[in-house]
Design goal:
This protein is an alpha+beta fold. Helix content is 49%, strand content 20%. The protein folds into two domains: 189 residues, GAF domain (Beta-Lactamase, 2-Layer Sandwich); 243 residues, Heat Shock Protein 90, CATH 3.30.565. It is elongated, with a radius of gyration of 37 Å. Bound molecules: adenosine-5'-diphosphate and magnesium ion (MG).
Length: 436
């Protein structure tokens, strides 16, 4: 059977490790077995083929320039502990010098060879009389570790041993490289995740900051009313007669304006607030929509923008209300910018509930977004606006916030007006609630 056949290695010599043996080890590598157990299998195989040997693999740590324990199925634990962490160097025993020179080091007699001068005690204690070590190098020639064989008697490596070690080093190299790239992948994924979170946070801040500037204009209108009323009241106070009714009218206007400013300031502070650690709390759609619309009250009035809110407004859903408020403000802001100068502008908010979800459709009287840019609108920093306040962040940040709620937001291409749809679960999964 072909499976039991041995193969011929690259140097044309008969291979000592059979196809089945190689296949077994490679499949362990592919199935993600732990590196140490794969190296153990490799060394056990070596010791099985060469019964008079004890094998050791050390792994190179680039940062510390040290060799760390990899595998040694039959060497005593206490010996292994003593070699773990040895610095590589020109006279650092077999493994240390093989690693240092990146070439095979042979010590036929540990008791007389100068390379083992500092380790003579070890040689005697463990009865290790001969040793040879081969560096494990990858395709680029980078050092990954060392593969060593120890003997109880003085010894010179035979051709059979050299072939076998070469074969096994190729497999060990594959296993070490796989583990390294898995670690690198994990590290870079972690790094990318950190960068994404940082970028998103700064995007959120930039976006809400811009929006806050925009909304502060809203305060000017009630302030103008207050200024006008105070002026009128000062005049009336100096006039003769009973002016109580007129004064009351002015105090009522003052009060309304103050309430309005209070509401705007409250909205502003939640807009700029970092809410990613807020708990998910049951909130009704009506309150959120009312709060968001109230931020636009003056601007809508001046530009004759009609806002219509319909549907199941009392639906309760779990959310970080500040974040959903921020999303609504972003969408309303975009709609306002798109339609405020058009004839008969309107914005319709429709709330629906189905399948344990809440759906919010925000439609404006615009004629839709051109197909040429639809695919880009959610991309951070994409904007078609020329004024300096445009950040190109409103939709991308909104998308991130909705995704934090395990929801979806999309532009509805099927609507002949401009419509964005938000879909959110009525309840957040418990892990999310706990994270909060
Ligand atoms: N309601 C809308 N009507 C028309 N175009 C819109 C609307 N909402 C978004 N867009 C388009 O999507 C782009 C990206 O929006 P956004 O991410 O909020 O950034 P910004 O508002 O700063 O441009 C806008 O520049 C605009 O071209
Ligand atoms: Mg915007």
């Amino acid at each position: 059977m072909t499976q039991t056949k041995t193969k011929t290695n690259s140097s044309g010599k008969k291979a000592l490790t059979s196809y089945v043996e190689i296949k077994n080890i490679i499949s362990q590598i592919l199935f993600g077995e732990e590196l140490k157990s794969i190296l153990n299998v490799i060394l056990t195989h070596a010791e099985g083929k060469l019964p008079q040997t004890q094998a050791l693999i050390l792994l190179y740590n680039e940062n510390s320039k040290c060799l760390l324990f990899g595998a040694a199925p039959s060497l005593p634990e206490s010996f292994v502990q003593k070699v773990h962490g040895i610095q590589i160097g020109p006279t650092a025993g077999c493994c240390g010098s093989a690693a240092y020179f990146k070439s095979t080091t042979v010590v036929r007699d540990t008791l007389s060879d100068p390379l083992w001068a500092s380790y003579i005690g070890l040689a005697k204690e463990y009865g290790l009389r001969a040793c040879w070590s081969v560096p494990i190098l990858n395709m680029k020639g980078e050092l990954l570790g060392t593969f060593a064989l120890y003997y109880k008697k003085t010894h010179k490596p035979t051709q059979k041993e050299t072939i076998l070690v070469k074969e096994l080093i190729d497999i060990a190299c594959l296993a070490i490289e796989r583990e390294r790239s898995a670690i690198l992948k994990k590290e870079s994924e972690k790094e990318i995740q950190i960068q994404r979170t940082n970028a998103l946070n700064s995007l959120k801040h930039a976006s809400v900051g811009e929006m806050a500037k925009n909304i502060s204009h809203e305060v000017n209108s009630p302030l103008a009313i207050i200024r006008g009323s105070v002026h009128q009241m000062n005049r009336i106070i100096d006039q003769p007669g009973d002016n109580k009714v007129t004064l009351r009218m002015h105090t009522a206007r003052l009060e309304r304006s103050v309430v309005r400013i209070e509401k705007i300031v409250k909205g502003l502070s939640s807009l700029t607030r970092e809410a990613s650690n807020d708990p998910f709390l049951k909130t009704d759609a009506r309150t959120l929509i009312d709060d968001a619309l109230s931020i636009f009250q003056e601007r809508f009035l001046t530009s004759n923008v009609r806002s219509i809110v319909i549907g199941e407004l009392d639906v309760l859903f779990e959310c970080r209300s500040v974040q959903i408020f921020q999303v609504l403000i972003s969408l309303l802001d975009n709609s306002y910018e798109a339609i405020s100068k058009s004839e008969n502008p309107w914005i319709l908010i429709h709330v629906m509930q189905y399948d344990q979800k809440i759906r919010l459709e925000i439609t404006d009287s615009g004629n839709g977004i051109p197909t040429s840019i639809v695919e880009k609108i959610m991309v951070p920093l994409f904007t078609t606006k020329v004024h300096s306040r445009a950040t190109g962040l409103g939709l991308s940040v909104s998308q991130a916030l909705i995704q934090e709620h395990s929801g979806k937001i999309w532009y509805d291409k099927s609507c002949h007006r401009t419509r964005f749809v938000i879909e959110l679960p009525l309840e957040q999964v418990s892990s999310l609630k706990q994270a909060a």
